[in-house]
């Protein structure tokens, strides 16, 4: 027989609920803004941002999927949509016949270069400006601690 659930305390539930509401509202508003400002979906923006942050504009398909925490099928569909619009290209990996690279095209580079400044202003307006430098430092430490903890847990 299973043990009874260990329900959250009222303080734990309040912290969890507040975190989830903030995260969902922030991501929702940022996603709508990037769509309205650039015509790109939030997923387009994430893919192009991760590709161009590497400095080379290219990344192995599965490395990109892992970085974004996406399933292989979601990554495949997203890349296919972006290929059709000319934002990325898929290149086979010569060293590994099964692997492939996702590469930002010149149009993809232009799209992210045009969208990023406005996106950063929205991040600053909705998130950064709400916190003191000390609170941002604390949030970064807490986030890193949770991420490290999660890496040690089974999926």
UniProtKB/TrEMBL annotation:
SMART domains: HTH_MARR (SM00347). It comes from the Bacteria. Residues 1-148 form the HTH marR-type domain. It holds the Pfam family MarR_2. InterPro entries: HTH_MarR-typ, MarR/SlyA-like, WH-like_DNA-bd_sf, WH_DNA-bd_sf. This is MarR family transcriptional regulator. The lineage of its organism: Bacteria, Bacillati, Actinomycetota, Actinomycetes, Kitasatosporales.
């Amino acid at each position: 027989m299973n043990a009874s659930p260990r329900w959250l305390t009222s303080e734990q539930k309040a912290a969890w609920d507040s975190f989830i509401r903030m995260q969902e509202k922030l991501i929702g508003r940022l996603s709508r803004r990037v769509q309205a400002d650039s015509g790109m979906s939030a997923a387009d923006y994430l893919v192009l941002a991760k590709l161009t942050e590497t400095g080379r504009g290219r990344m192995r398909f599965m490395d990109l999927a892992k970085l974004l925490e996406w399933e292989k099928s979601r990554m495949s569909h997203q890349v296919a949509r972006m290929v059709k619009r000319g934002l990325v290209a898929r290149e086979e990996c010569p060293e590994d016949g099964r692997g492939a690279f996702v590469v930002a095209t010149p149009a993809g580079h232009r799209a992210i270069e045009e969208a990023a400044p406005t996106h950063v202003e929205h991040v600053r307006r909705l998130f950064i400006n709400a916190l003191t430098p000390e609170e941002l430092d604390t949030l970064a430490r807490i986030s890193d601690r949770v991420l490290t903890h999660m890496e040690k847990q089974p999926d």
